[in-house]
Amino acid sequence: MEEEEEPIQNLWQEVRDLTLGTSTQINHLSSPPTPLQFLRGYVSPNKPCLISNAVNHWPATTLWQSTHYLTNTLSSSTVSLHLTPTGRADALSPNPISPSSLCFASAEVKHLPFPDALTQVLESEMGCVGYLQQQNDCFRSEYGSLSKDCDSDFGWASEAFGCLPEAVNLWIGNELSETSFHKDHYENIYAVVSGEKHFLLLPPTDVHRMYIREYPAAEYHYSQDTGKFSLELEEPVRNVPWCSVNPYPSPELKEKEMTKFPLYFNGPRPFEVTVKAGEILYLPSMWFHHVKQCPDSRGLTIAVNYWYDMQFDIKYAYFNFLQSLPHSMLCDPASSGKLGLESQHNISICNSEDESSMGDGTASASDKLVHDADDTTEK
Amino acid sequence: MEEEEEPIQNLWQEVRDLTLGTSTQINHLSSPPTPLQFLRGYVSPNKPCLISNAVNHWPATTLWQSTHYLTNTLSSSTVSLHLTPTGRADALSPNPISPSSLCFASAEVKHLPFPDALTQVLESEMGCVGYLQQQNDCFRSEYGSLSKDCDSDFGWASEAFGCLPEAVNLWIGNELSETSFHKDHYENIYAVVSGEKHFLLLPPTDVHRMYIREYPAAEYHYSQDTGKFSLELEEPVRNVPWCSVNPYPSPELKEKEMTKFPLYFNGPRPFEVTVKAGEILYLPSMWFHHVKQCPDSRGLTIAVNYWYDMQFDIKYAYFNFLQSLPHSMLCDPASSGKLGLESQHNISICNSEDESSMGDGTASASDKLVHDADDTTEK
């Protein structure tokens, strides 16, 4: 028995074997699949893929290279700018009341004319980072005058999913903007128009490796007077279940993080996917993802993502079951030793009720559309 | 905590909620779905459905009502007749060496001209029951001269699955023939041409409710001299993992069976589906099924089933994980009491390696094609 892997480790490995086959990379399609190919080969098995030559015909791929075009087209549009000191919004940060613990910090959201907002993105530096994003279908509302530059949906995807996109979001950021590990209860078609996005992907079966715990919600506030951010806890306290793992800890924190989160750092590596301008990523529902970006020559990364409703089917039921199993049930002390898991770490996995309202919290815990998805999943 | 259901019970219930929606029956389609509808609505979510008006155009639906037509067309065909004393082949039976334990009993298979074989099916009675079946693609081999009476595949299904049927099997039996609970590593399109089939269906998530255990393989042998069957254990001993539950115990055994298999008898009821002549059942891969039948006015039930290769995807990985969890991990003594599970029942769940070679054993443990599927699943 000592030599055998635990069931949960077998599960992590088997999903990798099934997803990658004999490759070490996710599938890369040189052109969009047919609806049946997409549904059969990727959506049904909940398997990501990278797709080239799917947006070559979008006017956006050329027009948006011109910053003048963007500011001109959106000259009278008011947009939502997310401001943080570090570029990390919807991420864990030291709790302002007791800095030895963490809180879930959201950006300050400012509504201002696009040209001013874009300037703030371009002039970002550590201390004040702007990210143009709002996961409330912003591409079809705030950025409506750009909509004609992209297709309103991907025909092959809409046919496969059996519906039109529930939300389309625009993202304009720079190299400082980063999105922490989370999952969405949506099928996601993620198109990069300029710059590059770097995804780390983990299948839903790796849920215990994310160390999802509850953190009190907090929000950044920028003071014009001091030119500094303060972080304020929400009152009354609202707890947000969130992934604890930062996959890129600073060198001085690395050892500590590896000791705190051994299942992540000592387990199988995440799938690494770079999505270049003109490529799209199919990011299946419920996959955990972390996103960094490299800007184009102007210093911008621009992407549009299409969220489609996911199916709540047997896969979802299996996920809920898996997530509800306490960590102690899944690894015996002997083999968790192999994973570097010291028994003194009391790994608290949220109970299943808390968890089912997580994930949805996800991309933006304060987001309306995401909360709608949440309602869908509750019985 | 005492009031809460265990995670495994939540899983059983959630899959039912997702499969049935607000209905108490599986979906019944009045005509065949499109490939996309079928893949999206049924195959991907691993959800059964009943379909009417899919085989109206088959010559079989009229021609096979004539026994004369069948014997005439197959007058020179040699077919495989499965003979058992009770109609229950590939089922548990008292072990001939130690009758207090059970063995896995297979039929005696005789190869004889179709007209003689059909006579034995029609003249079956308790003591000697004949069932014309062989799960080795027999419809396209032994019964090749009937093939033109049915379509060679279902276009909408083949498009959805992305392949042609791996095997097509014919079944000609009577009211005594019964198939015990098992699962197949195939997608199954099951068409009833005459008579009715009664299915009990359980989703793969109910695996622990089947009490899969290992039983020594045995085979019936019919003696022309005595007119009786003997049951002989295979030598060397070969163990077959098989479902322990008989869903229709005789009245005098019922209480004992309910005590032995409380998770089955006290848990959620199986889905009951009657497939009438002219209807087809989509029986998703990995679903446990038990089959009984009602004959037509001649005393025959005739069906053709199409096995398509299944996808070994994240659902399969989740299943293997679930199955590998020992029963003791899933129900605590308090709540298993609620299920009627007495702690003295030492429920042995086969380990995951044994199990992965089960299921495939399934419909016919001695079957070539089924063993091929087995190979596929091994890594």
UniProtKB/TrEMBL annotation, chains A, B:
Transmembrane feature ranges: none
Source organism, top-level taxon: Eukaryota
Pfam entry (one): Cupin_8
Alphabetized SUPFAM superfamilies for the sequence: Clavaminate synthase-like
Ranges of Basic and acidic residues composition bias in the record: 368-379
InterPro entries linked: Cupin_8, JmjC_dom, RmlC-like_jellyroll
Coiled coil: none
SMART domains: JmjC
Family classification: Belongs to the JARID1 histone demethylase family.
Official protein name in the record: JmjC domain-containing protein
